[in-house]
Amino acid sequence: MRHPLNTPIGRFGIETDEESQGRCVATMPAYGLISPITGTPSLGPLAVLVDHAAGLVNHDRRGDDQWTVTSELSLELSPTCAAVIASHPDEPVVGSARFVGAKSTTGLGECDLSLGGELIGTGTVRSYFIEAPVQLAAWPTPNGATEAKIGLAAMMAVGDPLRDGDAHVLPQRADRALNNSIDVVHGGIASAGLEAVASAAANTGRADDPLNTASLRVNFLRQFFAGGQSRYVGTALRVGRRSAVADSQAIGSDGKIATIARLTAYR
Asked: Is 1 helix (H, G, I), strand (E, B) or coil?
């Protein structure tokens, strides 16, 4: 199933091939998604696919009076993930998700990422089951679709990257197409922004010898509203010759930290 271009998953070209109780299979093009900060291929957008597929299997387990909100997202990528994507420019990444264990106050979904018959990563989404909101944002229809956005910066609606001392900063502009059903920035897209600034911080001064993202662990603290001074901020904790660890924050239009992440990268 194709999704409207004025939705977060439609903006990233995600197609849902299967959705049944306890399982979701979806695809997303990943080749040519270039970081607006470093100018190198970005692996952060894979979080958009994980959030959709693994989040959906959690959402499908909700009760009639329940809704889900993501509290955690993780992404674990193989050492050859970037190389496999580069060698398959015309094939989308396949995300195959299933739920893990019994449902409680939270649910856990796990998603395998594969390309060209090779497993290139896994991811998880943990969701809270909450009381269903009285009103949800209207889900756009195909008739309201806008034109496709070209390039990762346009797809994410981010501004020009900035430096604040040692920190890398990426402004997040308001764009209704990036918002989920409760009208805040889609968790996968926020995760991609967090990965972008953290990866840039880890790779400062390493243009000729970049480190590839290996893991990303995201905690969603509160709703992330875009616009105004909303931004992603990434700082390095430690950078070595063959590995680095960096932290990042998504700061909303209200000036509050909405989402945090820790990234590990390796040569």
From this structure: coil
